[in-house]
Amino acid sequence: MVEDIHGPIRPVAKRHRRLLVVVDDSPECKVAIRFAAARAVHITGGGLILFHCIRPGEFQHWMAVADRMREEAFEQAEELLAGVSQQLNDYCGVEPETVVVEGDPKEAVVDYIKTRDDIFGLVLAAGDDGGPGPLVDYFTGTAIFDLPCPVFLIPGSMTYDQVDAMA
Questions:
Q1: Angle between helices 27-42 and 63-92 (to 10 degrees)
Q2: Sign of torsion, CA 42 27 113 81?
Q3: What DSSP line would sit under 81-96, residue for residue?
Q4: How many CB atoms lie within 10 A of CB 65?
């Protein structure tokens, strides 16, 4: 067994490793955000990306209305992420990146992760009402094989004290 170990231990190169957490208005999302922020602080070179996806507008035949609705949706998403960012900075000192995209959330998450080489993991929370939620359901199925990173699944019923004790 010892003969399988070759050469001296090399220093570990400094690398950036970010956790990606999907932010929406669900109660369980808050637990996932807190877990991701607390873990990001403890990971060497760690960081956090807050990701929000806006579904495409349903009023495409009224282009001016659709454009205004899209603008408002982006403004609201940016306000949401700015508020969450400030709370996380106050909580643990992390300064997350924020990303707002438009599209189907499942595809948007996969597409975004594939554009980055520093994603350490995707953090999702299962619903606290017993249901997994659409993203958890999707990423715990065959879609997980399309990801180049692990998925952290946080029970939405966890309390902040439980999250803090784990992280």
A1: 50
A2: negative
A3: HHHHHHHHHHHH----
A4: 12
